[in-house]
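Fold it.
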Amino acid sequence: MTNDYKLEFRPYQRRFLRSLTTNHGKWDIREGIILRLTDESGKVGWGEIAPISWFGSETLEQALDFCRQLPVQITDEIIFSIPDELPACQFGFESAQGWGSGGDNFITPNSSLLLYSALLASGEAALNQWETLWQQGYRTFKWKIGVDAIAHELKIFESLIHTLPASTKLRLDANGGLSYEEANLWLWTCDNLKANGELPLEIEFIEQPLAVEQFQQMLELSLSYETAIALDESVATLRQLAACYQQGWRGIFVIKPGIVGSPSRLRKFCHQHQIDTVFSSVFETAIARLAALQLAAELSRNNRAIGFGINHFFEQEETWLQSLWKDL
């Protein structure tokens, strides 16, 4: 039996408290689309389209164009036939269609057991920031590298590893911004510190050291060093994820549910291949976060912290959803 839904959607903008700096540049405003699907019985489902085009998803404009050309009444068939070129739309519509399926509060019971990783500011700011996050309960931190000159970053890294408590796990995220030589230097440095017993904490992995098109070099590096490598930009969408798996990647896959594509197909892939995953945020609102955390709770293995410790990047607006719906 197929369901009919009344579709409504609203674009939104949220300003970061401070610019987010990565190898891709500065990011000041998070834009996306909130979806509301109402079925024939009056039950409402919420979804969110939160694209990051420079990461491999569609653009916000493409997503808006897609929503605008849909009829007011849509069906399950329409939702499950959204093309792969619109992965953030696939996620948003499927989440809205399945909203509430995880029980009354929509979060599966074991999501409360998920460990969270907190994103530190890039550069020296991280040295003063971790303590507040530690007091909030975070024990895994992610720090952006490949943003500044490598000699400078290695100096800050040296300070950071001796400042953070010994029980910390640290992830280094290059966003594809290192050269092959720099990636070798970072991996060698981490291996060396560990081998010499100078590493008080655990470097969990280096995330996406090289650009997406340098997959073979990352595969080679992953076999050459003790320090683990995680793929992120290389596996932004389900299509890319499957391609990297087929080409032999058995390391860590960082999955951003908000832009990966269809949740039902993601579930199937993860169950089938039992891949080592880290689920991560795309700076979405609470709506997409609920849907993403439900997937993370169901599909995470190896007890890895999930990358959703990003609330400190936004103003906490308790009523933004109500006002978004009233204002328009």
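The radius of gyration is 20 Å.
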